Amino acid sequence: MTQHITLSSHDCQVTADSADQMRAFGARLARIVRAGDLIVLTGPLGAGKTTLTQGLGQGLGVRGQIVSPTFTIAREYPNLTGGPDLVHVDAYRLGSFDELDALDLDTSLDESVTVVEWGETVAHVLNDARLEITLARPVGELVGDDADLDGDAPRTISLHAVGPRWDGVQLTVND
Amino acid sequence: MISDEFARNHSRLSAVNEPLVLGIESSCDETGVALVRGQELLVDAVASSVDEHARFGGIIPEIASRAHLEAMIPTLERALSTADVDLGEVDAIAVTAGPGLIGPLTVGVSAAKALSLATGKPIYGVNHVIGHAAVDQLVHGDFPDEFLALVVSGGHSSMLLVDDIATGVRELGSTLDDAAGEAFDKVGRLLGLPYPGGPHIDRLAREGDPEAIRFPRGLTAAKDQAAHAYDFSFSGLKTAVARWVETQRAAGKELPIEDIAASFAAAVADVLTAKTIAACDRNGVDTVVIGGGFSANSQLREMAQQRCTEAGITLRIPPIKYCTDNGAMIAALGSSMVTAGVAPSALDFGVDSSMPLSITHV
After folding, report:
1. Nearest residue on chain B to A103, judged by CA atoms?
2. Is B62 on the interface with A (CB under 8 A)?
Protein backbone atom coordinates (compact mmCIF):
# COMPACT_ATOMS: atom_id res chain seq x y z
CA MET A 1 0.00 0.00 0.00
CA THR A 2 1.28 3.47 -0.82
CA GLN A 3 1.62 5.89 2.07
CA HIS A 4 1.97 9.67 1.80
CA ILE A 5 3.82 11.35 4.62
CA THR A 6 3.82 15.10 5.07
CA LEU A 7 7.08 15.97 6.77
CA SER A 8 6.83 18.06 9.92
CA SER A 9 8.35 18.58 13.31
CA HIS A 10 5.98 15.93 14.62
CA ASP A 11 7.54 12.50 14.47
CA CYS A 12 6.03 10.12 11.99
CA GLN A 13 6.95 6.50 11.56
CA VAL A 14 7.20 3.87 8.87
CA THR A 15 8.62 0.37 9.00
CA ALA A 16 11.03 -1.52 6.77
CA ASP A 17 10.77 -5.29 7.00
CA SER A 18 13.98 -6.07 5.15
CA ALA A 19 17.22 -4.55 3.90
CA ASP A 20 15.64 -4.26 0.44
CA GLN A 21 12.74 -2.28 1.90
CA MET A 22 15.22 -0.03 3.73
CA ARG A 23 16.97 0.63 0.40
CA ALA A 24 13.62 1.27 -1.28
CA PHE A 25 12.83 3.84 1.42
CA GLY A 26 16.19 5.52 0.72
CA ALA A 27 15.41 5.62 -3.00
CA ARG A 28 12.04 7.28 -2.25
CA LEU A 29 13.85 9.82 -0.11
CA ALA A 30 16.07 10.62 -3.10
CA ARG A 31 13.00 12.00 -4.89
CA ILE A 32 12.42 14.77 -2.35
CA VAL A 33 15.96 15.85 -1.43
CA ARG A 34 18.00 18.47 -3.26
CA ALA A 35 21.48 20.00 -3.14
CA GLY A 36 22.27 21.51 0.24
CA ASP A 37 20.00 19.18 2.21
CA LEU A 38 21.22 17.55 5.39
CA ILE A 39 19.96 14.23 6.71
CA VAL A 40 20.95 13.20 10.21
CA LEU A 41 20.76 9.44 10.72
CA THR A 42 20.60 8.04 14.22
CA GLY A 43 20.38 4.46 15.42
CA PRO A 44 22.46 1.74 17.06
CA LEU A 45 25.13 -0.37 15.38
CA GLY A 46 23.39 -2.50 12.78
CA ALA A 47 20.20 -0.41 12.60
CA GLY A 48 20.47 0.03 8.82
CA LYS A 49 21.99 3.50 8.46
CA THR A 50 24.35 2.56 5.65
CA THR A 51 21.66 0.42 4.01
CA LEU A 52 19.29 3.40 3.87
CA THR A 53 22.10 5.54 2.44
CA GLN A 54 22.72 2.91 -0.26
CA GLY A 55 19.13 3.31 -1.43
CA LEU A 56 19.44 7.08 -1.33
CA GLY A 57 22.62 6.93 -3.43
CA GLN A 58 21.03 4.61 -5.97
CA GLY A 59 18.03 6.92 -6.16
CA LEU A 60 20.27 9.95 -6.71
CA GLY A 61 22.33 8.10 -9.31
CA VAL A 62 25.77 8.56 -7.74
CA ARG A 63 28.86 6.56 -8.72
CA GLY A 64 30.02 3.47 -6.91
CA GLN A 65 29.03 1.07 -4.17
CA ILE A 66 28.06 2.96 -1.05
CA VAL A 67 29.87 1.40 1.88
CA SER A 68 30.39 2.27 5.52
CA PRO A 69 32.11 5.66 6.05
CA THR A 70 33.36 4.71 9.51
CA PHE A 71 37.02 4.13 8.70
CA THR A 72 37.48 7.24 6.57
CA ILE A 73 34.87 9.34 8.48
CA ALA A 74 33.51 10.70 5.19
CA ARG A 75 33.01 9.28 1.72
CA GLU A 76 32.06 11.36 -1.30
CA TYR A 77 30.17 9.94 -4.26
CA PRO A 78 30.08 12.01 -7.46
CA ASN A 79 26.79 12.16 -9.34
CA LEU A 80 26.77 10.75 -12.85
CA THR A 81 23.30 11.91 -13.78
CA GLY A 82 23.52 15.66 -13.26
CA GLY A 83 21.96 15.61 -9.79
CA PRO A 84 23.65 16.47 -6.50
CA ASP A 85 26.66 14.52 -5.20
CA LEU A 86 26.29 12.46 -2.05
CA VAL A 87 28.47 13.04 1.02
CA HIS A 88 28.24 10.26 3.61
CA VAL A 89 29.72 11.05 7.02
CA ASP A 90 30.21 9.02 10.19
CA ALA A 91 30.45 11.64 12.93
CA TYR A 92 30.88 9.12 15.76
CA ARG A 93 34.43 10.31 16.45
CA LEU A 94 33.88 13.98 15.64
CA GLY A 95 32.17 14.83 18.90
CA SER A 96 35.00 17.09 20.02
CA PHE A 97 34.98 19.16 16.86
CA ASP A 98 32.97 22.34 16.50
CA GLU A 99 32.90 22.34 12.75
CA LEU A 100 32.98 19.78 10.03
CA ASP A 101 35.96 21.59 8.51
CA ALA A 102 37.94 18.77 10.07
CA LEU A 103 36.48 16.52 7.39
CA ASP A 104 38.49 18.30 4.74
CA LEU A 105 35.79 17.64 2.17
CA ASP A 106 36.39 18.28 -1.50
CA THR A 107 32.73 18.66 -2.29
CA SER A 108 30.80 21.73 -1.25
CA LEU A 109 27.99 20.81 1.11
CA ASP A 110 25.80 23.39 -0.64
CA GLU A 111 26.05 21.35 -3.81
CA SER A 112 25.56 17.93 -2.22
CA VAL A 113 23.10 15.91 -0.27
CA THR A 114 24.84 15.19 3.03
CA VAL A 115 24.03 12.21 5.23
CA VAL A 116 25.55 12.28 8.70
CA GLU A 117 25.48 9.12 10.79
CA TRP A 118 25.84 9.51 14.57
CA GLY A 119 25.43 13.19 13.80
CA GLU A 120 23.29 14.38 16.69
CA THR A 121 26.23 16.15 18.37
CA VAL A 122 27.59 17.97 15.32
CA ALA A 123 24.67 18.36 12.93
CA HIS A 124 23.48 21.67 14.39
CA VAL A 125 26.68 23.40 13.27
CA LEU A 126 26.16 22.19 9.73
CA ASN A 127 22.72 23.30 8.85
CA ASP A 128 19.78 24.72 10.78
CA ALA A 129 17.41 22.90 8.50
CA ARG A 130 17.73 19.16 8.58
CA LEU A 131 15.78 15.95 8.30
CA GLU A 132 16.35 13.75 11.31
CA ILE A 133 15.81 10.06 10.76
CA THR A 134 16.02 7.64 13.64
CA LEU A 135 16.27 3.92 12.96
CA ALA A 136 15.41 1.31 15.54
CA ARG A 137 16.00 -2.41 15.34
CA PRO A 138 14.82 -5.20 17.63
CA VAL A 139 16.99 -5.56 20.71
CA GLY A 140 18.44 -8.78 21.96
CA GLU A 141 19.62 -12.01 20.50
CA LEU A 142 17.66 -13.48 17.66
CA VAL A 143 15.88 -16.64 18.62
CA GLY A 144 15.88 -19.83 16.62
CA ASP A 145 18.73 -21.69 15.00
CA ASP A 146 21.94 -20.10 13.86
CA ALA A 147 20.74 -19.42 10.34
CA ASP A 148 18.28 -16.89 11.71
CA LEU A 149 21.17 -14.59 12.61
CA ASP A 150 21.43 -13.92 8.90
CA GLY A 151 17.78 -13.08 8.56
CA ASP A 152 16.26 -9.64 8.20
CA ALA A 153 14.43 -8.10 11.11
CA PRO A 154 11.97 -5.22 10.88
CA ARG A 155 13.28 -1.70 11.44
CA THR A 156 11.27 1.32 12.56
CA ILE A 157 12.03 4.55 10.70
CA SER A 158 11.10 7.78 12.53
CA LEU A 159 11.13 11.07 10.62
CA HIS A 160 11.47 14.49 12.20
CA ALA A 161 11.87 17.57 9.99
CA VAL A 162 13.58 20.71 11.31
CA GLY A 163 13.29 24.10 9.59
CA PRO A 164 11.04 25.70 6.95
CA ARG A 165 12.84 23.89 4.13
CA TRP A 166 10.62 20.89 4.72
CA ASP A 167 7.29 22.73 5.03
CA GLY A 168 4.69 20.88 3.03
CA VAL A 169 7.18 18.40 1.56
CA GLN A 170 5.52 15.05 0.95
CA LEU A 171 7.28 11.73 0.99
CA THR A 172 5.63 8.79 -0.71
CA VAL A 173 6.55 5.33 0.51
CA ASN A 174 5.34 1.87 -0.29
CA ASP A 175 4.21 0.19 2.84
CA MET B 1 83.22 3.65 -31.44
CA ILE B 2 79.83 4.01 -29.81
CA SER B 3 78.02 7.14 -30.86
CA ASP B 4 76.51 9.47 -28.29
CA GLU B 5 73.11 8.79 -29.74
CA PHE B 6 73.52 5.05 -29.29
CA ALA B 7 74.63 5.58 -25.70
CA ARG B 8 71.58 7.73 -25.02
CA ASN B 9 69.20 5.19 -26.51
CA HIS B 10 70.92 2.40 -24.66
CA SER B 11 70.57 4.17 -21.34
CA ARG B 12 66.91 4.85 -22.08
CA LEU B 13 66.34 1.18 -22.85
CA SER B 14 67.99 -0.01 -19.67
CA ALA B 15 66.00 2.58 -17.75
CA VAL B 16 62.81 0.99 -19.04
CA ASN B 17 63.91 -2.50 -18.07
CA GLU B 18 65.14 -1.67 -14.58
CA PRO B 19 63.59 1.71 -13.90
CA LEU B 20 64.45 3.61 -10.74
CA VAL B 21 61.05 4.69 -9.42
CA LEU B 22 60.20 6.96 -6.52
CA GLY B 23 56.90 6.02 -4.86
CA ILE B 24 54.83 8.37 -2.71
CA GLU B 25 51.88 7.22 -0.58
CA SER B 26 49.63 9.49 1.51
CA SER B 27 46.07 8.17 1.19
CA CYS B 28 45.42 7.75 4.91
CA ASP B 29 47.59 8.30 7.99
CA GLU B 30 51.02 7.05 6.83
CA THR B 31 53.38 9.20 4.80
CA GLY B 32 55.39 6.76 2.69
CA VAL B 33 58.31 7.43 0.34
CA ALA B 34 60.19 4.55 -1.26
CA LEU B 35 62.68 3.85 -4.05
CA VAL B 36 62.54 0.75 -6.21
CA ARG B 37 64.93 -0.28 -8.99
CA GLY B 38 63.17 -2.77 -11.24
CA GLN B 39 61.48 -4.83 -8.52
CA GLU B 40 64.27 -4.42 -6.00
CA LEU B 41 63.40 -2.29 -2.98
CA LEU B 42 66.16 0.19 -2.14
CA VAL B 43 64.45 2.04 0.71
CA ASP B 44 61.00 2.31 2.28
CA ALA B 45 60.63 5.34 4.56
CA VAL B 46 57.37 5.73 6.49
CA ALA B 47 56.13 8.36 8.93
CA SER B 48 52.86 7.68 10.72
CA SER B 49 50.43 10.01 12.44
CA VAL B 50 48.51 7.12 14.01
CA ASP B 51 49.44 8.23 17.55
CA GLU B 52 47.82 11.62 16.93
CA HIS B 53 44.62 9.90 15.78
CA ALA B 54 44.45 7.32 18.55
CA ARG B 55 43.20 9.87 21.07
CA PHE B 56 40.17 10.54 18.83
CA GLY B 57 39.55 6.83 18.37
CA GLY B 58 40.37 6.92 14.67
CA ILE B 59 41.66 8.97 11.79
CA ILE B 60 40.65 12.61 11.60
CA PRO B 61 41.21 13.77 7.99
CA GLU B 62 42.29 17.32 8.84
CA ILE B 63 44.89 16.07 11.33
CA ALA B 64 46.17 13.55 8.79
CA SER B 65 46.55 16.25 6.11
CA ARG B 66 48.63 18.43 8.42
CA ALA B 67 50.76 15.48 9.49
CA HIS B 68 51.46 14.58 5.82
CA LEU B 69 52.41 18.16 5.10
CA GLU B 70 54.94 18.16 7.92
CA ALA B 71 56.30 14.69 7.19
CA MET B 72 56.53 14.76 3.38
CA ILE B 73 59.86 16.56 2.84
CA PRO B 74 61.72 14.94 5.78
CA THR B 75 60.51 11.47 4.69
CA LEU B 76 61.58 12.14 1.09
CA GLU B 77 65.01 13.35 2.24
CA ARG B 78 65.40 10.34 4.48
CA ALA B 79 64.55 7.96 1.63
CA LEU B 80 66.98 9.61 -0.80
CA SER B 81 69.87 9.78 1.65
CA THR B 82 69.36 6.21 2.95
CA ALA B 83 69.45 4.85 -0.60
CA ASP B 84 72.20 7.30 -1.57
CA VAL B 85 70.19 8.36 -4.59
CA ASP B 86 70.05 11.83 -6.12
CA LEU B 87 66.60 12.99 -7.22
CA GLY B 88 67.97 13.54 -10.72
CA GLU B 89 68.73 9.82 -11.10
CA VAL B 90 65.07 8.81 -10.70
CA ASP B 91 63.41 7.57 -13.92
CA ALA B 92 59.80 8.09 -12.85
CA ILE B 93 57.65 9.18 -9.93
CA ALA B 94 54.60 7.19 -8.84
CA VAL B 95 52.02 8.54 -6.40
CA THR B 96 48.72 7.35 -4.94
CA ALA B 97 45.93 9.25 -6.75
CA GLY B 98 43.12 7.39 -4.91
CA PRO B 99 41.12 5.98 -3.30
CA GLY B 100 41.61 7.56 0.11
CA LEU B 101 41.11 10.74 2.06
CA ILE B 102 40.93 13.86 -0.11
CA GLY B 103 43.26 16.10 1.93
CA PRO B 104 45.97 13.51 2.55
CA LEU B 105 45.87 12.39 -1.11
CA THR B 106 46.23 16.00 -2.23
CA VAL B 107 49.40 16.46 -0.16
CA GLY B 108 51.10 13.46 -1.77
CA VAL B 109 49.94 14.26 -5.30
CA SER B 110 51.02 17.90 -4.98
CA ALA B 111 54.46 16.82 -3.75
CA ALA B 112 54.82 14.33 -6.61
CA LYS B 113 53.75 16.89 -9.22
CA ALA B 114 56.24 19.42 -7.87
CA LEU B 115 59.03 16.83 -8.05
CA SER B 116 57.97 15.85 -11.56
CA LEU B 117 57.96 19.48 -12.72
CA ALA B 118 61.31 20.21 -11.08
CA THR B 119 63.06 17.12 -12.45
CA GLY B 120 61.22 16.72 -15.75
CA LYS B 121 60.58 13.04 -14.90
CA PRO B 122 57.29 11.34 -15.82
CA ILE B 123 54.61 10.93 -13.16
CA TYR B 124 52.17 8.06 -12.62
CA GLY B 125 49.05 8.62 -10.49
CA VAL B 126 48.18 5.08 -9.40
CA ASN B 127 45.46 3.15 -7.56
CA HIS B 128 46.28 2.51 -3.90
CA VAL B 129 44.35 -0.76 -3.64
CA ILE B 130 46.21 -2.31 -6.58
CA GLY B 131 49.46 -1.18 -4.95
CA HIS B 132 48.64 -3.45 -1.99
CA ALA B 133 48.92 -6.43 -4.37
CA ALA B 134 51.85 -5.04 -6.40
CA VAL B 135 54.13 -4.78 -3.35
CA ASP B 136 54.38 -8.57 -3.10
CA GLN B 137 56.67 -8.63 -6.16
CA LEU B 138 59.34 -6.94 -4.07
CA VAL B 139 59.20 -9.78 -1.55
CA HIS B 140 58.31 -12.95 -3.46
CA GLY B 141 59.50 -12.11 -6.97
CA ASP B 142 57.71 -11.99 -10.32
CA PHE B 143 53.99 -12.70 -10.42
CA PRO B 144 52.69 -15.74 -12.31
CA ASP B 145 50.73 -15.21 -15.54
CA GLU B 146 47.48 -15.04 -13.62
CA PHE B 147 46.64 -14.80 -9.94
CA LEU B 148 43.95 -13.77 -7.53
CA ALA B 149 44.55 -10.86 -5.15
CA LEU B 150 42.61 -10.34 -1.93
CA VAL B 151 43.10 -6.80 -0.62
CA VAL B 152 41.77 -6.34 2.90
CA SER B 153 42.18 -3.31 5.15
CA GLY B 154 40.31 -0.80 7.28
CA GLY B 155 38.81 0.84 4.23
CA HIS B 156 38.80 -1.92 1.59
CA SER B 157 37.89 -5.57 1.05
CA SER B 158 38.25 -6.49 -2.61
CA MET B 159 39.00 -9.50 -4.76
CA LEU B 160 40.96 -8.94 -7.96
CA LEU B 161 41.79 -11.21 -10.88
CA VAL B 162 45.17 -10.13 -12.23
CA ASP B 163 46.92 -11.14 -15.43
CA ASP B 164 49.22 -8.14 -15.46
CA ILE B 165 49.52 -5.91 -12.41
CA ALA B 166 50.19 -2.83 -14.60
CA THR B 167 47.62 -3.33 -17.32
CA GLY B 168 45.32 -6.27 -16.56
CA VAL B 169 43.51 -5.99 -13.24
CA ARG B 170 39.85 -6.96 -13.04
CA GLU B 171 37.71 -6.46 -9.93
CA LEU B 172 35.77 -9.62 -9.18
CA GLY B 173 34.02 -8.31 -6.08
CA SER B 174 34.19 -6.07 -3.03
CA THR B 175 32.48 -5.51 0.27
CA LEU B 176 28.90 -4.29 0.02
CA ASP B 177 28.99 -2.57 3.41
CA ASP B 178 31.79 -2.80 6.00
CA ALA B 179 35.42 -3.53 5.16
CA ALA B 180 36.93 -6.41 7.16
CA GLY B 181 39.11 -4.09 9.25
CA GLU B 182 36.19 -1.73 9.77
CA ALA B 183 34.04 -4.55 11.15
CA PHE B 184 36.88 -5.37 13.57
CA ASP B 185 37.03 -1.76 14.73
CA LYS B 186 33.26 -1.64 15.25
CA VAL B 187 33.20 -4.86 17.24
CA GLY B 188 36.18 -3.51 19.21
CA ARG B 189 34.10 -0.43 20.02
CA LEU B 190 31.21 -2.67 21.07
CA LEU B 191 33.46 -4.65 23.42
CA GLY B 192 34.96 -1.48 24.88
CA LEU B 193 38.44 -2.08 23.41
CA PRO B 194 40.78 0.80 22.49
CA TYR B 195 41.14 2.00 18.88
CA PRO B 196 42.11 0.42 16.58
CA GLY B 197 40.18 -2.65 17.64
CA GLY B 198 41.77 -5.06 15.17
CA PRO B 199 44.98 -5.97 17.03
CA HIS B 200 43.10 -6.26 20.35
CA ILE B 201 40.50 -8.64 18.94
CA ASP B 202 43.28 -10.62 17.25
CA ARG B 203 45.10 -11.01 20.60
CA LEU B 204 41.93 -11.90 22.57
CA ALA B 205 40.80 -14.30 19.86
CA ARG B 206 43.92 -16.41 20.31
CA GLU B 207 42.76 -17.17 23.86
CA GLY B 208 39.13 -17.93 22.97
CA ASP B 209 37.12 -20.72 21.36
CA PRO B 210 36.35 -19.91 17.71
CA GLU B 211 33.39 -22.31 17.82
CA ALA B 212 31.84 -20.98 21.03
CA ILE B 213 29.28 -18.81 19.20
CA ARG B 214 28.14 -19.48 15.66
CA PHE B 215 28.04 -16.02 14.05
CA PRO B 216 26.65 -15.67 10.51
CA ARG B 217 28.77 -15.89 7.36
CA GLY B 218 27.52 -13.13 5.05
CA LEU B 219 26.81 -13.85 1.36
CA THR B 220 27.83 -17.50 1.61
CA ALA B 221 24.35 -18.99 1.21
CA ALA B 222 23.53 -20.82 -2.00
CA LYS B 223 21.07 -18.05 -3.00
CA ASP B 224 23.90 -15.48 -2.98
CA GLN B 225 26.23 -17.43 -5.28
CA ALA B 226 24.77 -16.11 -8.52
CA ALA B 227 25.03 -12.39 -7.84
CA HIS B 228 27.55 -12.17 -5.01
CA ALA B 229 30.02 -15.06 -5.29
CA TYR B 230 32.93 -12.62 -5.08
CA ASP B 231 31.39 -9.96 -2.83
CA PHE B 232 31.64 -9.65 0.93
CA SER B 233 29.22 -8.41 3.57
CA PHE B 234 30.26 -8.00 7.19
CA SER B 235 27.41 -5.76 8.31
CA GLY B 236 25.08 -8.60 9.30
CA LEU B 237 27.89 -10.24 11.25
CA LYS B 238 28.59 -7.01 13.12
CA THR B 239 24.88 -6.66 13.95
CA ALA B 240 24.70 -10.27 15.15
CA VAL B 241 27.65 -9.66 17.49
CA ALA B 242 25.98 -6.45 18.76
CA ARG B 243 22.73 -8.25 19.49
CA TRP B 244 24.45 -11.21 21.14
CA VAL B 245 26.40 -8.82 23.40
CA GLU B 246 23.23 -6.82 24.22
CA THR B 247 21.43 -9.98 25.27
CA GLN B 248 24.24 -11.06 27.56
CA ARG B 249 24.43 -7.61 29.12
CA ALA B 250 20.65 -7.42 29.57
CA ALA B 251 20.72 -10.75 31.38
CA GLY B 252 23.46 -9.45 33.64
CA LYS B 253 25.89 -12.10 32.41
CA GLU B 254 29.61 -11.53 32.15
CA LEU B 255 30.82 -11.26 28.56
CA PRO B 256 33.06 -14.14 27.45
CA ILE B 257 35.17 -11.59 25.61
CA GLU B 258 37.81 -14.04 24.34
CA ASP B 259 35.17 -16.37 22.93
CA ILE B 260 33.30 -13.49 21.26
CA ALA B 261 36.55 -12.26 19.71
CA ALA B 262 37.54 -15.76 18.57
CA SER B 263 34.10 -16.59 17.13
CA PHE B 264 33.88 -13.23 15.35
CA ALA B 265 37.42 -13.40 13.94
CA ALA B 266 36.77 -16.96 12.77
CA ALA B 267 33.63 -15.85 10.91
CA VAL B 268 35.56 -13.10 9.08
CA ALA B 269 38.52 -15.35 8.22
CA ASP B 270 36.17 -18.15 7.15
CA VAL B 271 34.28 -15.96 4.67
CA LEU B 272 37.40 -14.29 3.24
CA THR B 273 39.29 -17.54 2.71
CA ALA B 274 36.35 -19.68 1.55
CA LYS B 275 35.36 -17.13 -1.10
CA THR B 276 38.96 -16.66 -2.23
CA ILE B 277 39.54 -20.40 -2.68
CA ALA B 278 36.22 -20.80 -4.49
CA ALA B 279 37.18 -17.90 -6.77
CA CYS B 280 40.49 -19.61 -7.61
CA ASP B 281 38.60 -22.75 -8.49
CA ARG B 282 36.07 -20.91 -10.66
CA ASN B 283 38.76 -18.99 -12.54
CA GLY B 284 41.34 -21.76 -12.81
CA VAL B 285 43.95 -19.83 -10.84
CA ASP B 286 46.50 -21.44 -8.50
CA THR B 287 48.15 -18.44 -6.83
CA VAL B 288 46.69 -16.09 -4.22
CA VAL B 289 48.26 -12.83 -3.06
CA ILE B 290 46.84 -11.27 0.11
CA GLY B 291 47.65 -7.64 0.92
CA GLY B 292 46.39 -4.62 2.84
CA GLY B 293 46.56 -3.80 6.54
CA PHE B 294 44.05 -6.45 7.59
CA SER B 295 46.29 -9.22 6.21
CA ALA B 296 48.23 -8.73 9.45
CA ASN B 297 45.31 -10.54 11.16
CA SER B 298 46.60 -13.86 12.47
CA GLN B 299 43.28 -15.75 12.18
CA LEU B 300 43.15 -14.83 8.47
CA ARG B 301 46.80 -15.76 7.89
CA GLU B 302 46.44 -19.16 9.55
CA MET B 303 43.18 -20.10 7.86
CA ALA B 304 44.39 -18.89 4.45
CA GLN B 305 47.59 -20.91 4.76
CA GLN B 306 45.76 -24.05 5.84
CA ARG B 307 43.07 -23.86 3.16
CA CYS B 308 45.47 -22.92 0.34
CA THR B 309 47.73 -25.81 1.24
CA GLU B 310 44.76 -28.20 1.21
CA ALA B 311 43.63 -26.86 -2.17
CA GLY B 312 47.11 -26.94 -3.72
CA ILE B 313 47.17 -23.15 -4.07
CA THR B 314 50.34 -21.09 -3.65
CA LEU B 315 49.75 -18.38 -1.04
CA ARG B 316 51.82 -15.19 -1.06
CA ILE B 317 51.43 -12.74 1.83
CA PRO B 318 54.10 -10.07 2.26
CA PRO B 319 55.54 -9.39 5.73
CA ILE B 320 53.32 -7.17 7.87
CA LYS B 321 55.37 -3.99 7.30
CA TYR B 322 54.53 -4.21 3.58
CA CYS B 323 50.85 -5.00 4.21
CA THR B 324 50.19 -1.66 5.86
CA ASP B 325 50.33 1.54 3.78
CA ASN B 326 53.81 2.37 2.47
CA GLY B 327 55.64 3.97 -0.42
CA ALA B 328 57.12 0.65 -1.58
CA MET B 329 53.74 -0.59 -2.86
CA ILE B 330 53.32 2.54 -4.98
CA ALA B 331 56.91 2.43 -6.28
CA ALA B 332 56.45 -1.28 -7.13
CA LEU B 333 53.27 -0.57 -9.12
CA GLY B 334 54.88 2.44 -10.81
CA SER B 335 57.90 0.36 -11.77
CA SER B 336 55.64 -2.30 -13.31
CA MET B 337 53.93 0.43 -15.35
CA VAL B 338 57.18 1.90 -16.64
CA THR B 339 58.40 -1.59 -17.58
CA ALA B 340 55.10 -2.38 -19.32
CA GLY B 341 55.38 0.84 -21.36
CA VAL B 342 52.28 2.43 -19.86
CA ALA B 343 51.99 6.12 -20.77
CA PRO B 344 52.52 8.46 -17.80
CA SER B 345 49.70 10.55 -16.33
CA ALA B 346 49.06 14.09 -17.58
CA LEU B 347 50.35 16.58 -15.03
CA ASP B 348 46.89 18.05 -14.47
CA PHE B 349 45.31 14.92 -12.96
CA GLY B 350 43.34 15.28 -9.75
CA VAL B 351 42.92 13.01 -6.75
CA ASP B 352 39.93 10.66 -6.65
CA SER B 353 38.82 9.74 -3.12
CA SER B 354 36.51 7.00 -4.38
CA MET B 355 38.66 5.80 -7.32
CA PRO B 356 37.16 2.56 -8.63
CA LEU B 357 39.30 -0.54 -9.19
CA SER B 358 38.67 -0.31 -12.92
CA ILE B 359 41.20 2.54 -12.92
CA THR B 360 44.78 1.30 -12.36
CA HIS B 361 46.28 4.72 -13.06
CA VAL B 362 44.89 8.10 -14.08
Report:
1. B61
2. yes
Which chain B residues touch A93 with a CB distance below 8 Å?
A: 56-58, 60
Ordered domains of chain B (ranges, CATH) = 4-135+326-339 (3.30.420.40), 145-320 (3.30.420.40)
User: Are the CB atoms for B229 and B173 separated by under 8 Å?
Assistant: yes
Cβ–Cβ gap A139/B243 under 8 Å:
yes
ipTM of the complex: 0.82
pLDDT in tens, A19-76: 899 999 999 999 999 999 999 999 988 889 999 999 999 999 998 889 988 887 888 8
Contact B60 A78 (CB under 8 A): no
Give residue B246's identity as a one-letter amino acid code. Answer: E
* Rounded-to-integer distance, Cα B362 and Cα B360, Å: 7
What pTM did the predictor assign? 0.89
In this complex, which of A50, A71, A140 lies closest to B243 when CB atoms are compared?
Answer: A140
**Contact status, residue B317 vs residue B301, Cβ threshold 8 Å:** yes
H helices of chain A, in order, are 19-30, 49-60, 123-126
3-state secondary structure at position A139: coil
